[in-house]
Amino acid sequence: MHLRYVDARRYLVRGDDCGFSVQHEILKKGAPVRLEFRNHVYAVLITRGSGRVRLLDAHGHVGEGQDHAVTEGSLVALNAAEAVELEAETDELHAVSVLNPPLFGTEQRHAGSGVFPVVDSDGEELQSYDHSAVGRLFSAPESLKGGSAPMKDDPLF
Questions:
Q1: Which H or E element spans position 118?
Q2: What is the CATH number of the domain that holds 15?
Q3: N or C: which end of the chain has fewer CB within 10 A?
Q4: How many angstroms separate the Cα of 122 from the Cα of each of 37, 126, 133, 136?
Q5: Residue 99 and residue 27: Cα distance in Å, rounded?
């Protein structure tokens, strides 16, 4: 993904069958980037640089007491439906993020809202989904589908 102030590289995507995706985003100094993961849970670890993270309310405004400094080692985790602005104060702010459901790899953030769609198993982009679509969006990785207990491969179980 290449927006004016963001360069993103995707390392693990849905097709890698890990159950999550991993990205490396590099934000450039100059403007806040709105991130809204209405369809995902999201965790981001700042690996280089410093900046600000601002939790936005339902109207897109920064809530009182919701403007925080982030530096190397800071971790930000968002539940679905939370929105933030992330802004680099140094020339570059590097962040490694994990999303679930995993990104498919080709979807693009909506220019107006900043929301990433989810892509189902048929390749259809969805702006939102209900419980009936969950199985088409994400599932346990193949290595864990039978559980993690020592007996998981026993034919009796």
A1: strand 118-119
A2: 2.60.120.10
A3: C
A4: 21, 11, 11, 8
A5: 18
Report residue 32 CA to chain centroid gap. 17
| Cβ–Cβ < 8 Å for 103, 21 | yes
The string of pLDDT tens digits covering residues 117-136 is 888 878 888 888 888 888 77
Q: What is the DSSP letter of 131?
A: G
**6: which residues sit within 8 A by CB, 6+ positions away?**
25, 26, 27, 28, 33
Can you give the length of the chain in residues? 157
Which of 33-47, 86-100, 103-117 has the weakest average pLDDT? Answer: 103-117
72 in any annotated domain: yes
pLDDT digits (tens, 9 = 90+) for 30-81: 888 888 878 889 999 999 999 999 999 888 899 888 999 999 999 999 888 7
For residue 98, being part of any structural domain is answered with yes
CA distances, 52 to each of 11, 32, 151 (Å): 25, 9, 47
CA distance 53 to 155: 50
Give yes or no for a contact between 127 and 50, defined as CB atoms under 8 angstroms apart.
no
pTM: 0.80
